[in-house]
Design brief:
two-stranded antiparallel ribbon, 14% strand, binds zinc ion, alpha/beta, Arginase, Chain A, binds 5-[(3-aminopropyl)amino]pentane-1-thiol
Length: 343
């Protein structure tokens, strides 16, 4: 299987993440991508290719032009205001307030985000664009005949809404790849999000559409991020009614239970008969993940890959979460190797 990787991921190098009232070293750190790349090479998974440049148009098929423009300039605006630290949103429109775009950078950061753990500094926009190009290059390979391709995306994307960043995400790489399939004539596309956290952005982007089926298996939002979306009664709206599926699990869920949800998801996908499949691959479902609470083992990712291959679809994997950096390479590449038949 070919892997798409961009060294420009390292332009995303923030030094802070607001967590527990402290500014900690970010969980979403450059070594995540480097560790996965090393494992890809160590396992000779296949060719490693740089992304092609697709520009901002395919990104704007999913994200609003004003949001993209904001991400491009917000760091410079922040610095121009003489702020001493990294750009961190700290104020939002609460209940009864107005969702309008203010002029001030603090207001604009709040308007275009939903969480405060995702700092911005120089290079974030460049890295986010490169990550989208990685996903679009993998999509193009699959559209040109590859059975599957691994988009080694960093920063991740599945928490990003059309005009909101958060959860370490800026551009929704999985949604951008799915929309590219649609724009190239693939009538129906399924997105399966197996990250520990709900793919709130992906759900929101396609929530009123029936041409893209969105499914997510994740930790109970009553207990974990993103807290305010991802419940099982969210099934889509308008034309999209019945085309969103959330499967929620409690702490300490092992693969033997989680895979029952995977089975439900695979059956829904088979029923939908998509022309292409995008897997939003987070491996923060791992038993040792520092910010999650499922109990999947490294071998379970081989089994997961095998099951996904049985769907028999052209498949793009977009890398999402996974924060046990020592294990992320084995866990992510196990999915690809399982997909290719390794047991
Ligand atoms: N105390 C940890 C809070 C983490 N909040 C953001 C999680 C984003 C996961 C992206 S896959
Ligand atoms: Zn996650």
């Amino acid at each position: 299987m070919k892997t798409i990787f961009s060294p420009l991921h390292s332009r995303r190098h923030v030094k802070t993440e607001l967590d527990g009232g402290l500014l900690i070293e970010p969980h979403e750190k450059p070594s995540r991508a480097e560790t996965i790349l090393a494992r890809v090479k160590d396992q000779a998974l296949g060719e490693v290719l740089p992304p092609e440049e697709f520009g901002l148009e395919p990104i704007k098929r999913v994200h609003t032009a004003d949001y993209v423009a904001f991400l491009e300039t917000c760091w410079d605006e922040w610095v121009a205001e003489g702020k001493p630290g990294e750009a961190i949103p700290a104020v939002w429109a609460g209940r009864g307030m107005r969702h309008r775009l203010p002029k001030d950078i603090d207001g604009r950061l709040g308007y275009y985000s939903f969480a405060a753990e995702t700092s911005i500094s120089d290079g974030t926009f460049e890295a986010a664009c490169a990550s989208a190009n990685v996903a679009l290059t993998a999509q193009r390979l699959v559209a040109n005949g590859e059975r599957a391709a691994f988009a080694l995306c960093r920063p991740p994307g599945h928490h990003a809404h059309a005009d909101l960043f958060g959860g370490y995400c800026f551009f929704n790489n999985a949604a951008i790849a799915a929309q590219a399939f649609r724009d190239q004539g693939y009538g129906r596309v399924a997105i399966l999000d197996v990250d520990f956290h709900h793919g709130n952005g992906t759900q929101a982007i396609f929530y009123n559409r029936n041409d893209v089926l969105t499914i997510s298996l994740h930790g109970d939002p009553d207990l974990v991020f993103p807290h305010f979306l991802g419940f099982e009664d969210e099934t889509g709206e308008a034309d999209g009614e019945g085309y969103n599926l959330n499967i929620v699990y409690p702490p300490n869920t092992p693969y033997s239970i989680w895979s029952q949800g995977l089975e439900t998801a695979c059956q829904r996908i088979a029923e939908f008969k998509p022309d292409a499949l995008v897997i939003a691959l987070g491996v923060d479902t791992f038993e040792e993940d520092p910010i999650s609470f499922f109990k999947l083992t490294s071998d379970d990712y081989l089994t997961l890959g095998q099951r996904l291959e049985q769907l028999g679809l052209p498949t793009v994997f977009t890398m999402e979460g996974g924060y046990d950096v020592d294990a992320i390479g084995v866990n992510a590449v196990n999915v690809m190797q399982g997909f290719e038949g390794k047991t």
